[in-house]
Structure to design on (233 residues):
């Protein structure tokens, strides 16, 4: 089955700095890669996703890149703010007609210091 | 749109009792729902995949007789923890595979979770 590795487990940055979280996956058939943000005690919220026919996607301060050959994808947050502090999960799955059972990474706890 | 609710948000029960958790898709039909368990500071552990009108598919190591899942309609799935014990205490989160952007149905929406504490 699919295996998703996520690094780092903890990331501490100063407000205004950029943060990068990286994930690798093992199944080359995976074609859908969402990122979720989970604040303490709350539900995971989809913040951005990318499909295998796209190499990069950006939404304001958040961007995701995908390298299909190397089987890795990354989340980039620029100009970080204290409210960005949360746990971020990456996932990989075969969406849109595939089995669609996402495999999640172990999560990255992002701490943004004011 | 694409809101998933979960009830109750928290429950405390005595050891040996059963607890039912409901997961509803409020404004869309979800043919597939997922149940996760999350321990503090850990990732989401998939317990089972629930398909409307059919038996749930359980992940390896998850006891189907202990965690009963019923997906009776396109908007409701229930998880019943039978004969709960303290080690079942956890945060249980459901999600529904719902309407993504036009033409895509693989976006996953999460419920707010249920904190179960078994005394």
């Amino acid at each position: 089955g699919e295996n998703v590795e996520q690094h780092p487990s903890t990331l501490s940055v100063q407000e205004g700095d950029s943060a990068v979280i990286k994930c690798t996956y093992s199944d080359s058939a995976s074609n859908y890669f969402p990122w979720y943000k989970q604040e303490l005690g709350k539900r995971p919220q989809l913040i951005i996703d990318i499909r295998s026919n796209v190499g990069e996607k950006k939404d304001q301060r958040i961007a995701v890149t995908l390298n299909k050959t190397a089987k890795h994808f990354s989340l980039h947050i620029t100009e970080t703010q204290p409210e960005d502090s949360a746990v971020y999960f990456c996932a990989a799955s075969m969406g849109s007609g595939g089995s669609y059972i996402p495999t999640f990474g172990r999560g990255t706890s992002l701490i943004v210091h004011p | 749109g694409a809101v998933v609710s979960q009830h109750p948000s928290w429950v405390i029960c005595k050891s040996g009792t059963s607890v039912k958790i409901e997961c509803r898709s409020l404004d869309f039909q979800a043919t597939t729902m997922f149940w996760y368990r999350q321990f503090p500071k850990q990732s989401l552990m998939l317990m089972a995949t629930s398909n409307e009108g059919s038996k749930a598919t359980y992940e390896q190591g998850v006891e189907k007789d202990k965690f009963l899942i019923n997906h009776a309609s396109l908007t409701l799935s229930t998880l019943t923890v039978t004969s709960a014990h303290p080690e079942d205490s956890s945060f249980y989160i459901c999600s529904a595979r719902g309407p993504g952007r036009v033409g895509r149905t693989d976006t996953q929406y999460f419920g707010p979770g249920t904190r179960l504490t078994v005394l």
